[in-house]
Structure formats: C-alpha cells, structure tokens
Amino acid sequence: ATQKETRGFQTEVSKLLHLMIHSLYSNPEIFLRELISNASDAADKLRFEALSQPQLLEGDSELKIWIDVDKDANTITLRDNGIGMSRQEVIDNLGTIARSGTSEFIKNLSGDQKKDAQLIGQFGVGFYSSFVVAERVEVLTRRAGLSAAEGVKWESGGEGEFSVESVEKTDRGTTIILHLRPTQTEFSDSFRLKNIIHKYAEHIAIPVCMHSENWKEDGEREVGDYEVVNKASALWTRPRNEISDDDYKAFYQHISHDFDEPLSWSHNKVEGNLEYTSLLYIPKRAPQDLYHRDGVRGLKLYVQRVFIMDDAEQFLPMYLRFAKGIVDSNDLPLNVSRELLQSGKVVDSMKSALTRRLLDMLTQMAENKPEDYAVCWAQFGQVLKEGVAEDHANQDKVLKLLRFASTHTTDSIQSVSLADYVGRMKEGQDKIYYITADSWTAASQSPHLEVFRKKGVEVLLLSDRLDEWLMSHLTQFEGKSFQHVAKGDLDLGKLSSEEDKQAEEKLQQESQSLVERLKKVLGDKVEAVKATQRLTDSPACLVRSQYDLGVALRQMLEASGQ
Ligand code: ADP
Ligand code: MG
C-alpha cells in the first residue's frame, strides 16, 4: 500500500452522517437498498462507457453484485464488477455531498434533532447510510480501464475522517466491507439479507448473488454456490400483470432517491411508428429545488435497455418537472448525446406523447382519487400553473387540473376546479369571476365581494405569487371569459334584475353631485370616481381599470427590469 492519507469529511457530510444515524434507527435495512442501487448504477455506467470503449469490459461482461456475510467476523461484503472509481473519484464521491440541493439543504437545517431527522428522510441517503449499521466501512475499488496498481482503499469510522491509500486490485469494480455495529448483528444473517433484497432489489436490472444454503440432516448448515436472489430483469421490461404494487414502489425508490412511496404511476409499452416503454411516477412530495427552474429534472433514459443518462429533461415540458421515471427507446441510437436529444422528430413525438400520458394520469387521479390529487395539487399546483402559458396544445387539459380557493368554501384550501365553478354558475351568469390579492384573507375579505355574496355568485380567490401572471394568460374556459371583480366597470350582465337596473339609474342620478365633488378633491390621484352597487356594507373602495396590470405582476416586471 502506498500514499496513505487521512482527510476530513466535508462539514455537511459529518452533519448528514450524524443525522442519518438518528433518523434511520427504525429503518436501518435501507443501507442495503442504497448500496445495491449504487452497484447497479455502476454497472449501468460501465455498460454505457463500453459502447464506445469495449476494452473497458476486460473480457468480463456479465455485470453482477455478490453479497457475502460472515457471522463470526460480523461483516457484510458487497462486491460488484461495475465501473469502479479512481482515487480522485473516491475522494470526491465518498468525502463530499455532490448531489445538487442536498448540501444546501443540510446547511440550512434547523439544528432541532427531531425535526431535522424527519426532513432528512426526504432525501436519498446514499452510500453514507452504511454507517447506520456499520461502525467501520472499507471500500476497495478500481476503475475500469486503469491498471491493477491503481486500486484504491478507502476506510472510515464515519466520525469526521476517512483515509485513502493506493492498493493493488486485479479485478475491476468495487468491494464494500461493512463491519457491523454490535447492535446491528441481525444483518449478518443471510436469510435476513435475502428478504431485504427481494423487498428492495427484486427488479433492478442486475443479478444480486448470494451463496445458497442448505440445512443438512444433522442440523449442520451447508454453504453452496452463488445463486441469483432477485429476478434481475429491468422492471419496465416485464408485463404489467407480473409486477406487484410493492415492486413498482421499490423501483421508484431506486430511481428517485425518494424515501417516500410515489403517489401514482403509469407503465406503458408503445408499439408502432415509435417504439418505447415508459414508467412514469408522480411523487408525494416536492423536492427542495422544485422552484429552481434549472434544478434537477427529467427522466432516466435507456436505449434498448442500456442506460444512457439520468435527468434527460428533453422528454417532458418544464411544468411537469416534478415527475420521475424512465423511458426506454428502441428508436434512438445507442450513442445518443444530450446535444442530439435537443432536436429531432423521435424526441419531439415522445415528448408530446409522454406529456399527454402524464396529464391523463393527473386527470384520472383528480377524478378517481381526489384525496391523492389534493396532495398533488398542494405540492405541485404552483408548477402546473406554468403549463397554462407553456403548453398551448394541452391548455384545455391543464385548465381542468387547476384548483382554486373560492367563496364557495370557507377555508384557504385550493379545491375548486373550473368545472365545479361553471357547474354552480347562476342562471344568466356568463363570466367566471375572480379576485386577486396578496393573501387568501385579503381576498376573502375584500369589499368587492359584497355584491357577489348578496347575489350568491361564487368568486375565485387568487392569492398565489403566480396568479396574476396566470390570469393574464387565461382567456376563457368552456366558452366563459374571466372577469376580475375589482377591475373596470362592474357588469353583472344578465345577473342584474330589472329592479337592479332601476336602482342603478336612481343611484347615478342621486350621487352625481357627490361624485363631482370627490373628483375635484382627489384630482390626479385617481382616473375616475364612480357611484356603484358593488358595495353593500362598505362606503367606498378602490377599483383598478380593466387593463391595469396587477400589483404583483407590476412588481415582477419591475424586478425583471421591464
Ligand atoms: P448517488 O448514488 O445518489 O450519487 P451515493 O451516496 O449513493 O449517491 O453515492 C455517491 C457516489 O459514489 C455515486 O454517485 C458514485 O459516483 C460513487 N459510488 C458509490 N458506490 C459505487 C460503486 N459501487 N461503484 C462505483 N461508484 C460508486
Ligand atoms: Mg446512490
């Protein structure tokens, strides 16, 4: 061994390790899911690089994971023949937190152990979860293509420091040795491990092998050859009726780094002009970086079952960036690059088909599982709204997915669809009325609502940051136009009765001199002074002209320098 050096973990890693041990004590088994997932990723990466450099396979192209337990030594050893790591990669990958967002998130944790521990569960916990069960972890690895002398040994007790040294390693890939904590010896049991493999890794594409075991008649245990424990065929290539819900959920966790179960999924094989398989998931919770438009998004792309890339954002529009999943194409070339994906008929057609698929999933959820859709809207509604402007082809579908607060309900929960609203429209009502304000409270208490309340006409209460922008893109829904109740002249159309009209005439006559006086006093400060039937309780209110930009929109435009 040469060049042994000891290094400190990035501060966030130490923090993460500490929190993880506290947060995962009730679910320690997920370390195995994470390590198998990494080995499977390593196999994917090797297969991909070998497309252009076949020599990387070194004559050994059956990519697998082998797991051994040693009850006496209290260790678990996971070995793979995937891509492996160079010395620098070991230092970068196993000493820092590379994934975007996570590091930022950890920096901002509150310091409240219990709360933070719950939050951390939202993230893929990755390699460091080994320390939940192990008091010491050794990693031996050699990158494909490097010489045997360029092997690396990494070792750590998970407490602030790790060491790296160069070692001889003849076989390519990574071996991880977990020295179990005295409290976690249950994991040195091979039956326990096999159960966990069935649970979490049944349908990852790579075989997970363990020694077979037989009990001899005299009660002795006989250890046989390696056998494949899992089904080891990529989940999406199997027929739907052979896949259980638990399989789908486990696969979601494998690809999404999400600790939670998905809200829903859709698995489809498309044949004909275009051939591909897609497996799309809607998560239960928004990631931290949902509102960064350049945050991580997109699907995992496979071509003819070969992994090509993560986060292929070309297959879904921006406003569906919360969806996760995989797409496996038979039409794209194996050497497809991000640049090549930027344009092209195949990608375009797949994108519009996948977009429709996802919108259908959401529509069905809204119809058949409204409680699930409520969760979905609370998490992703603000992003879905972007679709109204972004996706004209599917605007009708997106409109049906929108949910609003309204005067029909008494709370701020956004639960009213445009279809609900239209269904409750009064005889003679031909517009969809709405109001925008800084908060739901301000909207729901606006004096502009008085006349609508009196007539029993529902008004949508909009108070999200994007709402004025959204309404500037909305012209009509099912032939009904939208009308801001605080803008322009109040025109209730056929909702006004004959008495209303007479009252209006009388009002205008009687208030003429008051209006004149107010105009004089207010001068340039207002565009106009008008007598109105808008109010029933309040004496006066401010009204914006029909074409005035909303306050929030004006602030947004000013902020962006327009
Ligand atoms: P993630 O898998 O989300 O990137 P992890 O903490 O699980 O995060 O792993 C960190 C990184 O360490 C991986 O991205 C990969 O580069 C490297 N790594 C982990 N395990 C292996 C392995 N078995 N073979 C090769 N590289 C690995
Ligand atoms: Mg991982």
From TrEMBL:
Gene3D superfamilies the record matches: 3.30.230.80, 3.40.50.11260, Heat shock protein 90, C-terminal domain, Histidine kinase-like ATPase, C-terminal domain
Keyword Nucleotide-binding assigned: yes
SMART domains named in the record: HATPase_c
Pfam families: HATPase_c_3, HSP90
Function: Molecular chaperone. Has ATPase activity.
Family per similarity comment: Belongs to the heat shock protein 90 family.
Name the record gives this protein: Chaperone protein HtpG
Origin organism lineage: Bacteria, Pseudomonadati, Pseudomonadota, Gammaproteobacteria, Moraxellales
Gene designation: htpG
